Amino acid sequence: MGATLNVLWRYSPLLICLVLWEIVATAGPFANQLLPDVKQVAVAFWGLIQDGEIIQHGARSLYRAAVGFGLAVVVGSAAGLLMASFRPVRLLVNPIVQIFYPMPKSALIPVMMIWFGLGDMSKIVLIFIGCLLPVIISSYNGARGVNPFLLWSARSLGASAASTLVQVTLPAAMPEILNGIRTALAFAFILMVSSEFVIAKDGFGYLISQLGDGGAYAAMFAVIFVVAAVGFTADRLYGAFVRHQLRWREP
Amino acid sequence: MNRTASPTIPAPRTAGRASPGPGSPLAGAWRAVYRRLTSDTAIQFLVIAVLLIAWETVTRLGLVHPFLLPRFSAIIERIFNNVVAGKVFMDLGLTLYRAATGFFIGVIIAIPLGVLMARNATVRWFFDPLISIGFPMPKISFLPIFILWFGIFDTSKIVMIAFSCFFPVVTATYAATLGVDKWVIWSARSFGATENQVLREVVLPMALPQIMTGIQIAVPVGLITTVVTEMLMGGPGIGGSMMAAGRFADSVGVFAGIVEIALLGAVVVKGVERLRAYLLRWHTEARH
Amino acid sequence: MSGVHQPAAGGIGIEIRDVSHHYGGRNGQGGVTALDHINLDIRPNEFHCLLGPSGCGKSTLLYLIGGFIPVQSGVIETSRGKVTGPSPERGIVFQNFALFPWKTVLQNTLYGLEKLGLPKKEREEKAKHFIDLVHLSGFENAYPSQLSGGMQQRAAIARTLAVDPEILLMDEPFGALDAQTRRVMQEELRSIFERTRKTVVFVTHDVQEAVFLADRISIMSARPGRMQHVLDVSVDRSGGEEVMKRPEFVEIGEHIWGLVRDQAIAATRGAH
């Protein structure tokens, strides 16, 4: 009971914002022109669910984000570890990382269109590239920052170089890798929506632009809030996963 | 969030191994030249050069369709022409203007609000849930709303960019200000510092490393957002130019745009790193 | 005194011949000479302390014996042959514990046993035995971050002892502990040593600690690190902590302090 009240109190500012929104939307000077009211958005949301449109488009988007992001996590962590452990790998990969890191990845959207067309592949590759760099850099920094005494301990306990990399360097670098993956997760959603805004036949971003172009603003607002909620939920779930993974750090 | 987003990959700690025995002066000089040629920096530039030569060769031999991958020299030529015609400065200048304006508006709201949240319970109560929900959301999805409200010209772009840059900075400022060590604040008070002095002379400098980390997240996010808004709404600016080139199947133009925006990104990101190093020259992180 | 305890199989000693080591600099110019032509014989089954001021290269010498850094000049040999890299025959305990923070005490202790390829049951038994030996029973499933410094160092010692190394290298293992804990750990280490009789090389800058623990003490000087004296500490140790108050201990302590005093003063002045 007390806990419920607490949560209610904590999130009451959200309710206040909803009420303000409702007042502005119904009584304000631009009523129903630029700002649909809460009820209209809710009705539109229910309609999108019922005809399955939002689910279809959402599944497409999330599929693209998941594949690009997942590949980036695997490839990026491995690349960072190898760069930190082997000089030739570092010398080969680092210049490419340095060139791509500061580039705003959304600039690659037209090239992805030229190379892969309008389908899934162009978005997956874009998301992959965008997520790859933060993961590589965090994995590299994490692996370089590993306490050398841990590596020495492992070697003196009879571990081979390969098993030290997997069993000691990787877990020791894990806090930093997980941090980089969180950045990558945010990039995955940004690039997913951006690329679908610019070029797509389906997906969340496409649905939003299409509804906006057709003047269905209530439905457009509904989809935007759904995308925001999905991004928020993914980040929270990831946070819980990280806390579980790193429970050894808590005293 | 609490790590520097700095992408610099420091040179490896080469365990200096002194080779015993004297060498002839000539051998020593040769060894110095050899060492310079095989230094990490030289090899990395070589890697880039080899990649560029491979690109040029492959495209000249016609192994790749020029629409998919134009010759590197053609891209350089286009950029040169764009420079001569002043188009580069127009495009990059507008892009930079939008990105910078949006970024500064976002930061100017975010830093005071973050500090206020850390110090005032009411402000914290109101903004904490809004910001903790807003921080992980993909802000770019709100772009159509801003277009609806502010039209397709600069206002909606700048509002979108400010909105995107605001969250990482406010979150970092709030966490950093809360985390300032109370011992330092107490010792400042014991010297008779007023609340305002404590804020300006102790809290903000102590919070600065983390605030800078937030800014270093906001800058690339701001650039990504700028390019997307330009691509969607067209007109002058690097994003709009690239989309126009793409529409006319001018792949040289698209690639030239990528190289130009990559250069701008590199200058901005490195500039922020320099700024961080300068502002935090007193900090232990400056000492290595 | 050593003859009584020495197991029939015999432990292994360490021969250090003419070992020098430089850090930094180029082509032998500049940099720091950490070790300058060190010669030392560490006898089988003895507790040997390397004593010297900070910066005298005693840790470097220990890392060379461990095989963690490559020998630049000279030779380090055990009866198993030349030292060329780390090996489980030479176990090490570091000052900062170097436990794997993502593994529990039990998992840390099991780590080396897994590398030995022992069957699961035997691994568990051995790990439990050594956790018990260092008085950590009941904390098997705790993570290092949940333990005090002293307990973490016990866990590190258990992890190293579990693989049954013939040589035990200790790099100021009690340096990060508070005074009382340090004292208790010293007594326990000595008693573990009496029971297991490994060859121990123990690095410290604490004269008392060296006198209390060691059968022999090598005193090193700083910059460049050189071997100054090697002393026998042949005294009766029965009787726990009262031992330190006996006149022969006090006398050896005074004697060594006299030998290292000038070094220590030079080190504080010369250190940057």
Description:
- The complex is a heterotrimer of chains A (251), B (288) and C (272).
- In chain A, helix 5 crosses helix 6.
- The model of chain A has no long low-confidence stretch (mean pLDDT 90).
- With 251 residues, chain A is an all-alpha fold.
- Chain A is built from 10 helices and no strands.
- Chain B is mainly α.
- Chain B is built from 11 helices and no strands.
- In chain B, 36% of the residues are buried.
- The N terminus of chain B is likely disordered.
- The N terminus of chain C is likely disordered.
- In chain C, helix 7 runs antiparallel to helix 8.
The gist of it:
The complex is a heterotrimer of chains A (251), B (288) and C (272). Chain A has 251 residues and is an all-alpha fold.
Shape of chain A: globular
Uncertain residue segments of chain C:
1-9
Mean pLDDT of chain A: 90
Largest sheet of chain A: none
Task: State the assembly state of the protein chains.
Answer: heterotrimer
Order of helices and strands of chain C: HEEEHEEEHHHEHEHEEH
Which percent bin holds the helix content of chain A?
over 70%
Comma- or semicolon-separated keywords:
heterotrimer; A: 251 residues; C: alpha/beta; 6-stranded mixed sheet; 4-stranded antiparallel sheet; disordered N terminus
Write the layout of secondary structure elements.
The complex is a heterotrimer of chains A (251), B (288) and C (272).
Chain A: H1 2-27, H2 38-50, H3 53-85, H4 87-100, H5 109-116, H6 120-144, H7 148-156, H8 161-198, H9 204-213, H10 217-245
Chain B: H1 25-37, H2 40-60, H3 72-85, H4 87-119, H5 121-134, H6 143-150, H7 154-178, H8 182-190, H9 195-233, H10 238-247, H11 251-279
Helix pairs in contact in B: 3-11, 4-5, 4-7, 4-9, 6-7, 7-9, 8-9, 9-10, 9-11, 10-11
Chain C: H1 2-5, E1 14-23, E2 32-42, E3 47-51, H2 58-66, E4 73-78, E5 81-82, E6 90-93, H3 105-116, H4 120-133, H5 149-162, E7 167-171, H6 179-196, E8 199-204, H7 207-213, E9 216-221, E10 226-232, H8 247-270
Helix pairs in contact in C: 3-4, 3-5, 4-5, 7-8
